[in-house]
Amino acid sequence: MSRRLPKNVMSLERFMLRTEVLKLYKQMLRLVRKIPDQSQRQQLQNFIRQDFELNKNLEDEQAIRMNVMRGKNSMKELERTVHIAQ
């Protein structure tokens, strides 16, 4: 008796990418909480949410990896900006 996985089960690689994206999203939102100005903080939170929302339906793993790299670079830039603002 062979057991087949349903077609909608994601691969391990896809699962790992998804985990990395969610981790990056949470890190960015946590970092934005440190911004003292409430208006700027809200704007950045909205920007981050919109950016992730726009890309949530990406299927191409290479495109997802590129967006993760872009997000990590943005995260580093955001860390520097928040550090200066404090």
From TrEMBL:
Q: What is this protein called?
A: LYR motif-containing protein 2
> To which species is this protein native?
Magallana gigas (Pacific oyster)
Question: Do you know which InterPro entries this protein is assigned to?
Answer: Complex1_LYR_dom (IPR008011), Complex1_LYR_LYRM2 (IPR045293)
According to the UniProt record, one GO cellular component term is: mitochondrion
The family annotation for this protein states: Belongs to the complex I LYR family.
In the UniProt record, does the keyword Transmembrane occur? no
Could you read off the lineage of the organism from its UniProt record?
A: Eukaryota, Metazoa, Spiralia, Lophotrochozoa, Mollusca
Query: What function is annotated for this protein?
Result: Involved in efficient integration of the N-module into mitochondrial respiratory chain complex I.
Organism superkingdom: Eukaryota
Query: Which cell locations does it reside in?
Result: Mitochondrion
Q: Which one Pfam family would you cite for this protein?
A: Complex1_LYR
Complex 1 LYR protein domain sequence ranges: 20-76
Swiss-Prot/TrEMBL keywords? Mitochondrion, Transit peptide
Major location category of this protein: mitochondrion
